[in-house]
Amino acid sequence: MPSGPIPVAIALESGLVLRGHEFSVDGPPIVFVHDFDADLDAWVPVTSQMAGQGFRVISMDLRGHGLSEGEPDPLSAIDDLRGMLGEIRAIFGPVGLVSYGRMAHASFFIDERWGAPAQIAVSPVPAEDLNLDIDQSKPAMRMITYGSKDAESSTFVDDYYGRLRGQKLLVSTGADESGPELIRKRPQIMEHMTMFMRRYLTGHHLAFIADHADEIAARAEQIAAATETESG
Q1: At a CB cut-off of 8 Å and minimum separation 6, what does 78 contact?
Q2: What does the alpha-carbon distance between residue 101 and residue 192 come to, in Å, rounded to a whole number?
């Protein structure tokens, strides 16, 4: 298993600071976001398990949740998410995005332009406060997973899956759990998530490394020099 996570902070263009933690694994980056009225701890231990599969895992608190600044504001969720992903992409390249509940619905309006070409939506349910039109969703490669005995998510999938834009695959299991609890109780879901990200995110990651090899090498030298100075 990877070493424990380190704290991270991301300043949005507005000046608002979102906080979270990162498992600094040298691998493709995956961003986990929680649902409204929760915090990043909702994903424990899913995030450490995913990091153990060789991914750099970054788990963030939404605006006004956990240690992030501001007041809770669902109407700002999509803009905040786009800003957050843009900052992470600039450093680590294209990311995988994992969300659940109402934030999974919101994630359908994020695509590769904002740095998330591969996405996993767990137990999506309607984000009614956001007044989203699924016909205006943004295309991405998505895995949508839910418990078939979870009535709210089942209804959502029945109503919207066919209208969701972009390539997608559906993974269901005969369970009534939802969100991170579904993954904790059904380990086969984690296996599907891992395979999905390896197949659909790794290529983007390797292309980014090839395109930015000089910058990555220079950054590594700067970190090594700083570490040597501190130890000296």
Answers
A1: 106, 109, 110, 130
A2: 19
Cβ-count burial of 140 within 10 angstroms (0-12 exposed, 13-18 middle, 19+ buried)?
A: buried
Q: Which residues contact 57 (CB under 8 A, 6 or more apart)?
A: 5, 22, 23, 25, 29, 30, 32, 47, 48, 50, 51
Q: What domains can you pick out in the chain, each with its CATH number?
A: 6-231 (3.40.50.1820)
- Tens-digit pLDDT profile for residues 40-56: 999 999 999 999 999 99
Q: 104 with 121: CB under 8 angstroms?
A: yes
Beta bridge partners of 56: 29
Structure confidence by residue, pLDDT tens digits, 66-83: 999 999 999 999 999 999
Whole-angstrom distance, CA of residue 207 vs CA of residue 209: 5
Distance CA 170, CA 215 (A): 38
| Separation CA 5–CA 67 (nearest Å) | 15
